[in-house]
Design a protein that fits this description.
Helix content: under 10%
Oligomer: single chain
Largest sheet: 13 strands, mixed
Shape: globular
Number of helices: 2
Length: about 280
Amino acid sequence: MVKKMVCVTALLAALVAAFSRPAAAQDYTKPLKPAISDYGPFTKVEFKNTLTRRTDAMCGLPAAPCLFYGGDLVVNPVGPAIANGLSNETTTLIPGTPYGGATWVPFTVPAGQTWTVTGLFTNNQSTYGVLDQATEPDSAAFWSINQDVEAGSAGTVVASGTSAATSTPTGRSAFGLNEYTVQVTGISVTLAAGSYWMIVVPICTNAADPFCFGRFFLSDVEYVNVLPTNARGPAEPVDDSFFDSPFFLLTFDPTYGPVGTCFAIGCDAFSAGVLGSKGSN
């Protein structure tokens, strides 16, 4: 009788745990893989392409103009362009230090200019889009700006840190996932003319928060001979992004091409941006 009661108690506990967790769109946890194309379309969405806000709108704020924005997620690409999304996260499912997976996006400060960066953001397709709710700060993301990034090497860190962050729906969706802008502000980094790479990685690692069992994938931007929708500033260098992940055992792996992380399914450029002001030198 005691053994039977123990079994019943264990079964009830398992059922409570299962139903207390938000319903996932599909079983994307076994096996865990870095690209959306590894899973196929997710099946549950709450909004689709409503465009309730435009990502580039925040770039137009007087206090923080948009210095660079790679452009909007391509929802229905045509021709040779194929959209995708790549792991960009530190979650209960994808843990790691300083991140579980990070997609590094290139940008350029033009000759003769100096940029004062006050914020960074990435647009991520996500199962829930929730950041930590029980940490300090309450919601956070890890960010970094590096130079001289190349295959197998992080290059040189110009500035990095973990900062308070927001996660806001863009109104766009793809692959059955909704897209969220994860943004950090209040930073101050001065950049001279040159080539840089940036990340903003969402953090949700509270084991008591069922939403932290979700995933974040940095939105792909694909274009052929034309700039993506709402792109701002210097054009994002194509085929110059890298994926780094202690969880997936990859060290600054090119994201593009037949041997890249996405195995030739998109990932030539990504939806991310830099906020701040510019001067001349």
